[in-house]
Each structure stands twice: as C-alpha cells, then as structure tokens.
C-alpha cells in the first residue's frame, strides 16, 4: 500500500494548548488519528512527522521526493507553521525534490497579522487549504488523492 506523508512544522506539537481560540482544542495526536483514518478510507497509509527544525523538514521533503520516484509515496500534506512565511529553503526543497505538496493551515492566515499573508510554499504547492481547522488536514489528504489519482 502506498502512503502519504504528513509534515508539521514548528510549534504544532503544542496543538490543544497553544492559542486554542485560534488553533482549537485538538492535539497533534488527534490530528494524526484523523489523518490515518482519512487515508485508510482512501487506501493509503500515513507517515506522520513534526519538527521544530527547518533542516529536519527539508530532509523529510528530500526523502519524500525519493519515495515518490520509487512509487511508494503519493505526496505530502504539509503544515509548515511559521516557516510558511520565512523559508525559501523549504520552497527550494519542495521544488528541487519535485514533491507534490498540499499546504495546510489550521487558521485563516489571510485574516491574521499581515506578515502571515505571504507564503513561500504556496507557489510550489499543488493546492492550499486554509482556515478549515484541523479538518483541513483531511481535506488536504482527500485533495492530494483526487488531484494525483484522477
């Protein structure tokens, strides 16, 4: 069975306790369970990761590129957190590794501080899900499968 990688950037390990009025009360473990359940109904496994370190995320994107070429990974659902607005390196990794990415944000970043309105990831993403809460991960998984399998 092929898999989908779900990547989470900095501070997402604090879900459920960090600004619940913005990010909700679900924990990252809850998100992982939702992702596994959603992927299973579509015939996929989930490789779930979170890191507060940009280089670790880049390494995982490079790994995803290799696994996509091997035919064992469909693509990546990625919530880059604050790196969305700062990381040219993540942009370059996605582009360079030729990875299909669905960018996900729990909150509506466009309704927040102006520095959150620009994404270095969106221009290399296959699609973007914004402001749908943690349900956005499920929508990202469904969208990735729909986009790449139809």
UniProtKB/TrEMBL annotation:
Query: What's a Pfam family in this record?
Result: DHquinase_II
From what superkingdom does this record's organism come? Bacteria
The chain's coiled-coil residues are: none
Question: What's the name of its gene?
Answer: aroQ
Give the binding site residues for substrate: 79, 85, 92, 106-107, 116
Q: PROSITE patterns, per this entry?
A: DEHYDROQUINASE_II (PS01029)
What organism is listed for this UniProt entry?
Marinomonas colpomeniae
Name the reaction it catalyses.
Answer: 3-dehydroquinate = 3-dehydroshikimate + H2O
Q: What is the lineage of its organism?
A: Bacteria, Pseudomonadati, Pseudomonadota, Gammaproteobacteria, Oceanospirillales
Q: What is this protein called?
A: 3-dehydroquinate dehydratase
């Amino acid at each position: 069975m092929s898999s989908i990688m779900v990547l989470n950037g900095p501070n997402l390990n604090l879900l459920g306790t960090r600004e619940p009025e913005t990010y909700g009360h679900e924990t990252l473990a809850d998100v992982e369970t939702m992702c596994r359940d959603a992927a299973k109904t579509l015939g996929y496994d989930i490789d779930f990761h979170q890191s507060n370190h940009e280089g670790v995320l880049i390494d995982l994107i490079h790994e995803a590129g290799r696994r996509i070429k091997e035919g064992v990974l469909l693509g990546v659902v990625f919530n880059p957190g604050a790196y969305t607005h700062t990381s040219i390196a993540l942009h370059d990794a996605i582009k360079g590794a030729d990875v299909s990415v669905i960018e996900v944000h729990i909150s509506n970043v466009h309704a927040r501080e102006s520095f959150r309105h620009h994404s270095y990831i969106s221009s290399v993403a296959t699609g973007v899900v914004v402001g749908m809460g943690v349900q956005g991960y499920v929508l990202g998984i469904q969208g990735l499968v729909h986009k790449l399998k139809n």
